[in-house]
Specification:
single chain, about 350 residues, alpha+beta, Herpes Virus-1, N-terminal domain of TfIIb, 5 domains, four-stranded antiparallel β-sheet, two-stranded antiparallel ribbon, 8 helices, 16 strands
Amino acid sequence: MSLHDDLALLRRWSKEMDDRHFRASLHACAICFSQKPGLECVRPACNHAFCTACMSAFAEALVGEGNLQALKCPDTKCRAPLSYDLLRSLLPHELFTRWEQLTLQRSLDAMPDVVFCPRCSQPCVEDPSDHHALCPGCFFSFCGMCREGFHRGKTCVTPELALKLMKLRQQERTLAEEELRKQKDLEQQVLSLKLVEEESVPCPVCSTSISKSEGCNKMICPTCGTYFCYRCHERISGYDHFTNGTCVLFEAAEIDQWEMQMAAMGAANNQHHRPPPPLGADGRPLPARRCPNCRQFNHKEARNNDMHCWSCRTRFCGMCNQVMRNVYHFRPNGCRQHTDD
């Protein structure tokens, strides 16, 4: 045998003798201060003795909280880390699995070029030059800074906001689980503020940020009750704003989506759905008129130019296509109420 083998054998023999002596002796637990036999005690690599019950409760509480940084020798003057084998002997299977998962998570968080997919939460490698990341699980290509779909050449956040996000993510690597959850909530609030700035408009009176998910462009502020146009942000009253200017009440995409929804519900059972076009003597649909308010097509009935839009219920003239305020619109020298076209 070589000298190296002899030294290894001596160290192993010394360790076995030391463990045998520890198990055969009484020890004062540094947590509960009780005298316990060595068979009911454990000791970390620093050789401080603690009873197994106290150390198990200590480790279970910290892992349950996600506070892995505190998994060290309970002696206030020591703070040596607890070994893998010791934790495996102290923790039940579920908590030990949790400890392994949290340890892996902390290791990934410590890597500055690793981000998590916003769709499936898989760890992904981020290109630091443009923050591009491609998920190996669902193949989602996204921006590691704002977590949206990748947008090459487009700045997603301001330099100040980018710096704030990077600082928040740097702090996440040293936090316990509850603090980490709060930190992620704060990060989400920062991103939400970015979304509000991009997709909302301010009320012209009180400046409350208001966003529109669907519906018409006539908005009402939930704070002060002001009516305004979502397109030009001008304060309005009624619907005249959408008939005399460049702003429309409904966007074309909104109208198309609404029509598809109505078609799916069934025209026969929905009184607000566009009626079928009336047919002329030749079997062809009669000419249609666009509503001056919402721009929907409407067909005349019985040659009558007194028309009511099927969509927004606006009353308008089928000859001049103007909104009608009363029946006196039709005059001998003006528009006729009944025409063939």
